[in-house]
Amino acid sequence: MASPINVKLLLIGNSSVGKSSMLLRFSDEQWLPEDEASATIGVDFRVHKMEVKGKKVKLSIWDTAGQERFRTITSSYYRGAQGVILVYDVSNRESFDALPRWYSELETYVSPSVVKILVGNKLDKEFSRQVSTTEGAEFAARMNSLFLEASAKTAVGVKEAFQEVVEKIMETPELWAPVSPATPDKGGKGKGRPSGSSMANGGMPGSINLRQDSEDASSAGGGCSC
Ligand code: GDP
Q1: Which residue's alpha carbon is nearest to atom 15 within ligand 1?
Q2: pTM of the entire structure?
Q3: Residue 206: band (very low, low, confident or very high) from pLDDT cuts 50, 70, 90
Q4: Of 7, 89, 130, 194, which sits 20 to 30 A from 99 (CA to CA)?
Q5: What are the two backbone dihedrals, phi and then psi, of residue 6, each rounded to the nearest 5 degrees?
């Protein structure tokens, strides 16, 4: 039986935009009431199995677990990701204005072929919306990203966001079925090993200590001197 394709997804975006809530909603079909959620330390990792276009996919989805509050997201967090979900809060302009910074981090740390989706979360807060759908969609198009609005609270759009990224990844085989450098002409499908670069770089639960790599950001990344 074919082993599943391993896919590593990341959630990034400003603090409090709802990244952990989206992950909980997607993987555990759970929603923590607002007051409880803010008291809970972010989720940091979830594995989720799904089937896309007849292919079994094992998603490992990483959440920043609050690292972004200290501006210390490290290169190891980004390493090996095939998809990135960039989240802002439609009722918080600042979280939208911060997106160029998040995109420039991506430029530094992930390959250009990585699939990106921009998600405007908290769609249920329509009454206090500060970023229009059109604005979000236009920005996403400029940044070569998919786009969707969602609500972790009502569940609208959440599953779709994950599904869309994974579908796009599946349409981009170079992201998950790397051809071995030794056999460039054989169209190798990476059989015999779980394919996907995520496993080659520690995409398994507990195998990365996000904190220990803080100095790594300058050596492995694009020379960030922060
Ligand atoms: P993170 O810091 O980006 O991981 O954000 P959290 O998931 O911790 O959410 C921050 C706050 O926003 C919490 O109080 C959540 O309950 C709330 N929140 C998250 N998603 C939504 C949403 O879709 N709608 C509403 N109204 N609140 C949300």
Answers
A1: 34
A2: 0.79
A3: very low
A4: 7
A5: -90, 130
